[in-house]
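Before the break, one more example. Copy the sequence into your notebook; we will annotate it together after we see the structure.
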Amino acid sequence: MSNEQKDPQPKKAADRIGQGLAIGIAIGLPLGVAFHNIPVGLALGVMLGAAIGASLSQKNKKD
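Here is what the structure looks like once it is written out:
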């Protein structure tokens, strides 16, 4: 093995807010359907996703 191999993960992490929003919406919409209130489920999912994405972004910036 040579010492010049590239790291499998880049040093700079991409912004994770978009991924967090996708996860939050994927969780919020089924909750909205289950409770017969899709807009509230969507809003909760967006809030949850933004929080998850922001926390992942801050965690990656500290590393």
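DSSP finds two helices and no strands in the chain. The two ends are 26 Å apart (CA to CA). Try to locate both features in your own notes.
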